């Protein structure tokens, strides 16, 4: 379907400085990043923040939004994505194929976990004494593990789209503080190929489906 009905309070105007393809990359991923960092993670200026899964759709927004809050940001990603994650503002990058950040001796005030491939105990070891671990989604087993082992300092959440947060993100976009990272765009006729590519894992940012409108006379 080309159209969908949604409540007015879940909508915001497209930033004037963005294409429709760029705007399509924003709402879900940016809201996840904003609510995870600000609402659950209680991010503060000057904090050391680690984004695990920094090169994906949610992660690229998380890096930039964390920087907009004045945090010192470390992004964890694969080798081929290191330069891209640096380019969007990460102060440090960690190649997870070469280094285990949970054993480096570094401690973080906030860990925003999108990749969720390690034990909850590993993440807890990398937190500062008052640090907070935020899991974006994850399996039921992992969610239960976080709540049982971590207590208040380790939590998960599901994003709740709303107009207020979309407008907040729109202002960041218009100010140039956040930009969507788009890996590839596919026409609707190639949606199967887009799903296949996405399913291979590790896209840089978002994969976009475009719909061409044909004016009939």
UniProtKB/TrEMBL annotation:
InterPro entries: Chloroplast_QOR (IPR052733), ER (IPR020843), NAD(P)-bd_dom_sf (IPR036291), Quin_OxRdtase/zeta-crystal_CS (IPR002364). Pfam families: ADH_zinc_N_2. One of its GO terms (molecular function) is oxidoreductase activity. Residues 1-209 form the Enoyl reductase (ER) domain. This is Enoyl reductase (ER) domain-containing protein. It comes from marine sediment metagenome.
